[in-house]
Each structure stands twice: as C-alpha cells, then as structure tokens.
Amino acid sequence: MSLDACPQVRAAVDTPDTLTEILLGLRLDGVEYGRCEMHEPWALAFGPSHEARFHFIAQGTCWMRTDDTDWERLNAGDALLMPRGTYHELASSPEVPAVEIDALARRRLADNLYLVKDDGDAASAHDGALAAPSHVMFCGSMRFNLDPLHPLLMMMPDVMRACDLAQRDPAVPTLIEAMEREVTMDRIGACGIMARLADVLAATIIRAWVECACSDASGWIAAVRCPQIGRVLAAVHRQPERDWNVAELAEVMGASRSRFIEKFTAAVGETPARYVARVKMFQARQWIAREGLRVAVVANRLGYDSEASFSRAFKRIIGHPPSQARLG
User: Fold this and answer.
1) For the structural domain made of 26-213, what CATH number should be given?
2) Each residue of 150-176: pLDDT tens digit?
3) What is the Cα–Cα distance from 297 to 310, expressed in whole angstroms?
4) Whole-prediction pTM value?
5) Architecture of the CATH domain 220-327
6) Cα gap 175→166, rounded to integer Å
C-alpha cells in the first residue's frame, strides 16, 4: 500500500511528534568524556557541577547515591543522566570510602577524551599479566544547548535512570559498542564522534523517561503529548526568534483564538504570550552567554524596537539584566 493510499500513515510520516521536534533541537556541548576502568573495591565522588553528567555501566554491578537518595544498585546496561550535575557517588560497594574522580590517574586520548584508571591495574596475576578491571563505565560531563530554565530541563529529576536500557532499546548496544571503540582506540576525530554519540545516548535516556517514567505527568509534559498544543510548542521552540502572535499560534493549533488561549493556558499553566516571551529570553541568554552576541544584536534579532526595551523584558523574565548573562 502506498503512503498516498493511507492518510494516517502519510500524516505520521509528514508530521513528527512534538517530542521528536524538541529532541531534534537538543544538543550537548561536550566538556569531557572518559572510559573508567576500576578494580574492586572502589568508590568515586562526582562533585556538584554546572554541567550535566552521564554514566553508562558497561561491565560489573555497582551502587549509586546522591545527597538526597539512598544507595541504589546499578547493573551492566544501566544508564544515568544527571541533567543538573547533582553531587553523587558511584561505588563497587556502599561501604567503600569515596575519592574524588579528579584524583584518579588519566591518560589523554584526544581533546577532552580520557582513559581513567585506578591503581588496581598494577595487580598482576601469577603469570605477570595485568589484572582485568572489575568494572568499566562510560562517564562524561556536558552542557545542554537549552537554557537551564527551559521547561524540559526544569521538569527533569536530578537523576534520570534508564534501567536495563540496552534491553528496552535495541539500538543502545550498538551505540555503546561504538562508544567503546572510540574511547579505547586512539583514532583521529574520536572526540567529535563521542560527542555525537553522547547526544544520541542522552536523547535516548530523555525519551525513555518521557515514555516510561512520565505516564502520569501533568503540566508541560502533558502539553507536549497533546497533539494540538504539542504542535504549537514545537513551532515556538523551533523558531523562538519569530514574532509569534495569538492568531498565528491559533492557526498552528487549528482553533479559534479564544479556544486556543483557553486550551493552551489550561494545558501549559501560563498564557501563550507569557510562554513565548520566556522562550525568547531563554534563547537570548544562550546567544549572549554561549555565542557572545552583543545585547543590541540579540535585541534586533528578536524583533525588539530598542536595546532598552529588550533589556527590560529580559530582566523581568530572567531576573537580571542581559549584561550579566555573559558572566554565567
């Protein structure tokens, strides 16, 4: 059967779901990536960070805790994403005292790409061969290209765990094998490839969280899942610089202006105008802080009549003047 003969299939192909739209715009700027090879017993502390952190347990069973949670067991195939860089510890056993991850020896494989080992590899078998690590993990720190106040990031828990992710998603084992090859083989371009693989891994974890852990979600996630409101949210996030008005957004939704305002406000928790203004300021902060654009350029790009009017709107929504965004 052709797609033309099946309108529902054609619509599904032509119109990606809203989560896909948003994930397509989600990017991670890699700060550091590494393969950690540990010999039992061991325990590592990852201090609080402005960057997100991710872990994939490739080999061995270990434990994880944060300041707010008790020890949880992690198995090979488990993946973790800490979107706000929350303090946490990983250990072969909860009783082992933790040492800072930065205290371990590391060998640079490429830019921002390291092989991290404890000193257990000095232990030798009877034949003199080096002892194999008991645990192997992929660890990284990264920056989201989204503003920290983006609704997607704000709703994420401190720890996002995709239990047995490799069994749920058949693409993950292949992805992890590719990551392992790039970490262990000192090849040209390894860091860039790892960064892209980390994009996919993080997006997969987020998708698993939305699909599996948020079945009872309300607010923004529920709005994203609503076909009508979801189209509007995707359009706004796809073109934050556009001067959206109520009539245009209502047309995207396929409703009258009054019906659109009523349904959008009920689903999202704020008016369309307020939501659009916040998204614009999130984008503005990224342009200023990450790309180094001048405030006047950002104001013009977002369609403000003057730098002063933009600065007032920025301070009202973000809480400080745009000049401070460059500092953070």
Assistant:
1) 2.60.120.280
2) 777 777 788 887 665 556 667 777 777
3) 11
4) 0.68
5) Orthogonal Bundle (1.10)
6) 9
